[in-house]
Design brief:
Helix content is about 5%, strand content about 20%. The longest helix is centred in the C-terminal third of the chain and has 11 residues. The relative contact order is 0.10. It is mostly beta strands. The chain has a single domain, classed as Ribonuclease Inhibitor (Leucine-rich repeat, LRR (right-handed beta-alpha superhelix)). An 8-stranded parallel β-sheet has the order 1-2-3-4-6-8-9-10, with no helix packed on it.
Length: about 180
Amino acid sequence: MNLRIKLRKNQNTFPTEKLTEDLRVLEILGESLEELPSLEKLTHCKNLFINCPQLRSLPALPPHVEILKIRGGQFEVVSSSFSKLEALHTFFFNEGNKVSEELTLPQGVRVLDLSNNKISCLSSYLFKTQSLQRLTLDRNNLQTLPEEIYNLKNLNHLSLDYNPLSQETIQRLNKTFGVWF
């Protein structure tokens, strides 16, 4: 079952009665929503989309989620949020969020999008997964990249648009990946 919950403009409470264990896709849109209940009991949920600019923390997530897209929020994403998400293969975290320097992704993540987060420094922990195929880091404040990014053997898409990359980084990206700026 698919469910899209779109809250009214000033509605800041979440209708927990709508959450049933058979949900496979859940989309939550809440302009004023600051808090979400635990989503851990949604054991069949494979796709989770959260668009809540005022969200203060990330709730416990469905254990078998494969695609996770989070847009907006007033919180920092940390490794403990993802440690149990072994099925996660696609992760989008956009629009002004903070990314912990210790963030480590599950080994199966193939698609990572951290666009538009004002990131100025990326942790090498992010690139411990060798399964990463697609990496999008557009609209951040990156001048350099960690050494580990150059060792991603399966990477076939790298986007760094609108970052103030140093000349040295641009040259190295061109040499390693054939990326032109």
